[in-house]
């Protein structure tokens, strides 16, 4: 009886020493690994990921589109030289030079120099021997006075920059959503591996202890089979957990790139950080704040709103095309432009000028009216799409928020279940040590405890994903 009592006292002491030694070894191994936090993971991904690079190029493309549109207002300089000789005679030599400077509000400033010589010149083309200079302005009084193709293109290109920014945010949001999900999966399976490794060490130690007690006649030989079976069961669980962990690590590494599109790999010594908690609560009024943020900043809503502004510009331009084309051009003429300072004197301008006027208007205006009605139809389609997208965004956000609240309650209950399972496990171990229970029941309690822990890990990962999805539904770049 004395030996049996000593064995029952010795067994829990040895278990404590083994667990302490296991923790020391685990701590030593932990010192050799490098933890990668979610924030650092995001920074690494956004630095060289091809999708992040593509998103940055969207902004650059829009900037160049605006630059091209502004090119319509670049001053244009032109020069033409025509010469004809036949039979040894000079028929004519025509040299025309012009500078046209478009102004933002419609008119064009014009300046130039013409010089013509020859025996067979058209009288209206003849100039003084030193040539003829001119300076003036062309003004649209009908179509093109308030808006024209150049101004409409530039205004739409400016809006296109904001649309490109919305596309960039959408791409980055989508990338970070997947990156964050993969990170939490990686962390979940890392915790599972750690838990099952500890459980396997405990089962292996218990097998050795059972064998010793069987040899000493304290336990039946059938308990050895029970202990071996549990060790094998946990070995299988560990293999599956390691497989899940390695695959999750590969998925996380898929997002890591170096410069020049060189893919990177995660070293085996790199593990997800356990210091940061994924269980961070949101403020009470966070839902209303996220709804307001979504209405203003959600990429899809932002794009539709900007597209509506573009269509408004297109409608103004189409309505302007219903007006007749009425252009007036006036030029002051001077044969010695650089020396005569009285070129813009009223008396000189009344005696030396060239005036022109043009007018045109399609009789039926079918193309112009069709363009206007088509633009209005596009506006109605865009408006209805905007209303539908607002509803989808709001409902998606509410669904994500409901899932987040539900998971928060589930985790609270699961934590209580883990605590209860731990109490039952410890109680069963105490009963086993006092000879009132069996190894089968101890293993069963430990399995239930492990299952509760694994489910808690899964719920925590799901909770973190739900929180990320909540911010993504609001259209925010959430780098946590």
What does this structure look like?
This protein has 480 residues and is an alpha+beta fold. It has helices at 2-32, 38-48, 50-70, 149-215, 222-253, 286-297, 299-320, 346-351, 366-433, 439-473, and strands spanning 34-36, 76-86, 89-102, 108-117, 132-140, 257-258, 262-263, 270-272, 325-334, 353-360. The strands form three sheets. Strands 2-3-4-5-9-10 form a six-stranded antiparallel β-sheet. A two-stranded parallel ribbon has the order 1-8. Helix 1 runs antiparallel to helix 4 and helix 9 runs antiparallel to helix 10 (439-473). It is elongated. Residues 1-26 have low confidence and may be disordered.
Ordered list of secondary-structure elements with their pairings:
Blueprint: H1 2-32, E1 34-36, H2 38-48, H3 50-70, E2 76-86, E3 89-102, E4 108-117, E5 132-140, H4 149-215, H5 222-253, E6 257-258, E7 262-263, E8 270-272, H6 286-297, H7 299-320, E9 325-334, H8 346-351, E10 353-360, H9 366-433, H10 439-473
Parallel strand pairs: 1-8
Antiparallel strand pairs: 2-3, 3-4, 4-5, 5-9, 6-7, 9-10
Helix pairs in contact: 1-4, 2-4, 3-4, 4-5, 4-7, 4-10, 6-9, 7-9, 9-10
